[in-house]
TrEMBL record:
Mitochondrion is among the record's keywords: yes
Topology class, membrane: Multi-pass membrane protein
Organism (species): Trichosporon asahii var. asahii (strain CBS 8904) (Yeast)
GO terms for biological process, alphabetical: mitochondrial phosphate ion transmembrane transport
Pfam families attached to this UniProt entry: Mito_carr
PROSITE patterns membership: SOLCAR
Protein name (Swiss-Prot/TrEMBL): Phosphate transport protein MIR1
Cellular compartments annotated: Mitochondrion inner membrane
Length: 273
């Protein structure tokens, strides 16, 4: 993904993140939805409060996004080479997608975590930055991994599989003579499907609910709200995520072409038609 796109993603999400952070530290906001909490914050502290931490958020997602997309291509190539042959890589392509996404997100989150910590501390207590040092900036590394890795796995693996399914629904002649609008439509459709998957896979880890492991959170949330409550707000989240993810893949493709970068290695299994 382009760094421009990821910076824009961070900018657009800053008010959402800030509202969530205020909800955690302000008892009067507990239990309020995102929109109602945002309105309460604006009424008390002005609209500027929703942009608290804007700088760290934009920089963090700029670095994380650039590292994630470039890292995914590098990790995928490494895993393909490790298979020993192209045919073996195609046979194990799902494992390669999963592993490549997890590896890329792990290293990308090393860049994102300090920015997230800075944003949260700007909301709660800016003085903590001077007292905790580097270890304080990485205190949330594991929770971020638990949230971001399922998201990345859904984003990349489902995008790859969706793209493969779309191409395999066409004849070989059609695949070889696709127009630019058709290629754009395929990228958009695959990105939207991947966005839906990313939203679902990261739903439980989006920052709400009890502390602890994902399994513990699932159990506690299921007891409190029932199975239906685990997916509260999933619809709007899926729509937002589908838009973000599809835009990321489109922009990434455009910028690679503009820079003359070689295409990434493809291990889709082609079905003859």
């Amino acid at each position: 993904m382009s760094k421009t796109t990821t910076a824009a993603q961070g900018q657009s999400l800053t008010p959402n993140f800030t509202a969530v952070d205020y909800s955690k530290i302000d008892p009067s906001l507990k239990g309020q939805g995102l929109l109602s909490a945002g309105r309460s914050i604006v009424a008390k502290e002005g609209a500027g409060a929703l942009l608290t931490g804007f700088g760290p958020t934009a920089v963090g997602y700029l670095l994380q996004g650039g590292a994630k997309f470039a890292g995914y291509e590098a990790a995928k190539k490494y895993l393909v080479d490790a298979c020993g042959s192209y045919d073996e890589a195609v046979k194990h392509r799902t494992a390669i997608y999963l592993g490549g996404a997890a590896i890329a997100e792990f290293f990308a989150d090393i860049l994102l975590t300090p920015a997230e910590a800075t944003r949260i501390r700007l909301v709660s207590d800016p003085k903590i930055l001077r007292t905790e040092g580097l270890s304080g900036l990485y205190a949330g590394f594991i929770p971020i991994l638990c949230k971001q890795i399922p998201y990345a796995i859904g984003q990349f693996t489902v995008n790859e599989r969706a793209t493969e399914a779309i191409y395999n629904s066409m004849s070989k002649e059609t695949r070889e003579n696709l127009s630019e609008p058709a290629q754009f439509a395929i990228t958009l459709t695959s990105g939207i499907i991947a966005g839906f998957a990313a939203a679902i896979l990261s739903q439980i880890n989006k920052g709400h609910g009890p502390e602890g492991s994902m399994v513990h959170r699932l159990v506690v949330l299921a007891k409190q709200a029932g199975p239906k409550g685990l997916f509260a707000g999933l619809g709007p989240r899926m729509i937002m995520t589908a838009g973000l993810v599809s835009t990321q893949f489109i922009m990434y493709g455009w910028i690679k072409r503009a820079l003359g970068a070689p295409p990434g290695i493809e291990i889709h299994k082609e079905t003859a038609k």
